[in-house]
Backbone:
């Protein structure tokens, strides 16, 4: 969940440790945890832990908790997001009320929000705020002009390595960060785009669910054209859908997108020959990439495919496609009819959400995204005391130390690889709470009464901020999540981690709870992020963040085999009769989960200094550790949303993440799990990886 959503208003799955509730969904509900630690009432002790650990730990909660009508899923992450959003609203409203006494940032925050909330003004303007963009699209007379408009729409809305956001609804997405093999220079990366639905599968899969969705999607495109006053909406919808289907056919799959070795570097002048079709000079100039000598092409098959379509498909189809995407992208800032129609498809049909969430929530999220670090600075000042920062830093230090001990103890790894792994671990940079330096928003103009314009200017401001990095030295301390984000992230190119302030709170981290609880929950989250540095992708980056193999051949073979075994384990989970998980698509996250839990367990045991933990609430310390872990993954999800996540998310659904406990030997001892219980794995089948 990041401000990368500036340019991606459609719901997509974001990464970090949590695949969070998408922008369409969240709503309002609070928890009141009167007691710290595990939730006994949320358990279902009638179920044997070895049969279904998730149901044993979370069954009571699952039965008692409905998914709120305006959400596609529900769990601790959504609850914490709701609580955080209320705090943000209070901060934003204070800014709005401060008037002339406010700081410049505060005034912008207040104006952005109050302008979005002025529904009457937005209603009275109708489609007029979007008219200049629609006129510009209508005036496209040739392929040169098409390339200019396509290029002018690119923004920094993808991130294949930190937030694993692999596509955009623009034709391409831009990411600016250091080169894969050159940590000393920033360069632009180009990724695939062009689809409004979440993934190529939605256009190409033959399951009845997807076939039905495609019908509804075409009706939705026509409805949006009609609302915007276009003639022949059905014919236009047909052209847009046909073009997007061709785009889907040239797109890389989710698994292909995850391959860090799939990217290539092309000189600017090579694009015309390697990806013929587009007027590249016009596109790159309009995109502000005129002086980039080399581009990293993340999708070396899709980029030529898209370029070819820009030449072969009728100009009118492209103009309809551009107009539809412009309307869709602006819909949240247009009159209610647009908001509702967009929700009907992307909220209801695509994610199963029953009700649109209240406007104040959407306004708070939009403001928090547009002015991310300005809002984040106030949030951190008020809600993240230095004591929390110090405690979280100490916990990270424990986990890093425990990981180093695990490396030392590995019997299969050679001393040479161990030394490199420890070098990487020893230079890991850990950001806790908020960045060392705050973003300067003085260049962003927020105009009262211009809701759509404010959104568009915020997008451009963010894009220019990213492009400016091409002229700056690499900043190894750059943050990729705002402090108010309930998530955490590993940054392979920076050999760094970010733990935003908003995730360092109960129920994940509770200063009132005991060590078993905090290590099972926050400890496992920290362990997960550290372990990403050593997952199937992270392990290919060295201590300097360079894509370089530091493994001996034998060690890497062993490591890969362990990953394959884990992929096979997750391939076996089948949430629907016609749909199983993809063990390779979710492999990095599953490695991080199991390695993170192992290291959190080690750190928990170390924290006891050899003494046995007390029995509390009838559970031993080890039992509470595993219960706390599985309760941090409690979740309910609508079927439509679950299908969407399986198609597009690098994370396995939460219940399977909870059940990765079956790979840890101490879990078997703690709960006396034996064959033929369903989750039982014979010792050789338990995958540790690290
Ligand atoms: Zn992760």
Residues:
């Amino acid at each position: 969940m990041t401000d990368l959503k500036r340019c991606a208003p459609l719901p997509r799955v974001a990464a970090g440790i949590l695949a969070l509730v998408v922008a369409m969904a969240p709503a309002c509900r609070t928890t009141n945890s009167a007691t710290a630690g595990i939730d006994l009432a949320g358990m279902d002790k009638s179920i044997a832990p070895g049969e279904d650990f998730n149901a044993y730990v979370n069954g009571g909660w699952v039965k008692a908790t409905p998914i709120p009508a305006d959400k596609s899923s529900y769990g601790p992450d959504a609850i914490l997001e709701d609580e955080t959003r209320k705090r943000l609203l209070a901060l934003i409203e204070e800014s709005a009320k401060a008037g002339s006494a406010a700081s410049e940032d505060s005034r912008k925050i207040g104006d952005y929000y109050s302008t979005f909330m002025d529904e009457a003004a937005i209603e009275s303007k109708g489609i007029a705020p979007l008219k200049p963009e629609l006129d510009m699209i209508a005036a496209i007379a040739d392929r040169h002009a098409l390339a200019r408009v396509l290029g002018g729409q690119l923004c920094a809305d993808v991130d294949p390595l930190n937030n694993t956001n692999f596509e955009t609804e623009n034709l391409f997405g831009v990411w600016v960060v250091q080169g894969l093999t050159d940590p000393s220079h920033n360069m632009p990366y180009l990724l695939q785009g062009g689809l409004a639905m979440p993934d190529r599968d939605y256009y190409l899969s033959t399951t009845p669910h997807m076939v039905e969705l495609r019908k509804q999607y075409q009706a939705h495109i026509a409805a949006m054209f009609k609302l915007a006053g276009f003639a022949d909406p059905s014919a236009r919808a047909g052209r847009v859908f046909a073009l997007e289907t061709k785009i889907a056919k040239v797109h890389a799959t989710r698994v292909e997108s995850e391959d860090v070795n799939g990217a290539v570097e092309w000189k600017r002048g090579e694009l015309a020959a390697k990806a013929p079709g587009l007027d590249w000079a016009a596109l790159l100039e309009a995109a502000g990439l005129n002086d980039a000598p080399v581009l990293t092409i993340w999708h070396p098959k899709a980029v030529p495919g898209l370029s070819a379509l820009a030449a072969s498909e009728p100009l009118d189809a492209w103009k309809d496609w551009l107009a539809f995407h412009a309307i869709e992208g602006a819909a949240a800032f247009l009159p209610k009819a647009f908001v509702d129609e967009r929700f009907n498809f992307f909220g209801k049909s695509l994610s199963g959400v029953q009700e649109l969430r209240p406007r104040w929530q959407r306004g708070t999220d939009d403001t928090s995204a547009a002015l991310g670090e300005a809002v984040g600075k106030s949030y951190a000042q008020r809600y993240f005391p230095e004591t929390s920062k110090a405690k979280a830093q100490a916990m990270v230090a424990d986990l890093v130390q425990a990981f180093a001990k695990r490396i030392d103890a590995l019997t299969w790894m050679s001393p040479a690889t161990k030394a490199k792994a420890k070098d990487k671990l020893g230079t890991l940079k850990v950001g806790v709470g908020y960045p060392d330096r705050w973003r300067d928003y003085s260049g962003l103009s927020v105009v009262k009464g211009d809701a759509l314009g404010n959104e568009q200017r915020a997008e451009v401001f963010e894009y220019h901020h990213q492009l400016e990095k091409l002229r700056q030295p690499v900043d190894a301390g750059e943050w990729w999540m705002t402090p108010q984000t309930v998530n955490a992230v590993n940054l392979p190119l920076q050999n760094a981690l970010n733990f935003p302030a908003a995730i360092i709170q109960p129920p994940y981290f509770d200063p009132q709870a005991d060590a078993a609880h905090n290590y099972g929950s926050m400890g496992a989250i920290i362990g997960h992020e550290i372990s990403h540095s050593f997952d199937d992708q992270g392990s290919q980056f060295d201590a300097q963040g360079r894509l370089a193999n530091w493994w001996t051949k034998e060690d890497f073979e062993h490591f890969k085999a362990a990953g394959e075994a884990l992929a096979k384990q997750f391939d076996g989970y089948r949430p629907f009769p016609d749909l199983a998980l993809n063990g390779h698509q979710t492999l990095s996250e599953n490695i991080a989960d199991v390695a993170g839990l192992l290291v959190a367990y080690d750190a928990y045991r170390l924290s006891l200094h050899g003494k046995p933990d007390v029995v509390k609430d009838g559970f031993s310390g080890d039992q509470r550790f595993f219960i706390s872990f599985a309760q941090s993954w409690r979740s309910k999800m609508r079927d439509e949303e679950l299908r969407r996540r399986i198609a597009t998310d690098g994370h396995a659904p939460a219940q399977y993440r909870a059940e990765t406990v079956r790979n840890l030997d101490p879990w078997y001892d703690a709960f006396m799990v034996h064959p033929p219980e369903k989750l039982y794995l014979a010792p050789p089948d338990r995958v540790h990886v690290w």
Remarks:
- Confidence is low (pLDDT under 50) at residues 1-14, 20-34.
- The radius of gyration is 25 Å.
- Strands lie at 73-74, 172-178, 186-192, 264-267, 294-297, 429-433, 489-491, 496-500, 636-637.
- The first strand starts at residue 73 and ends at 74.
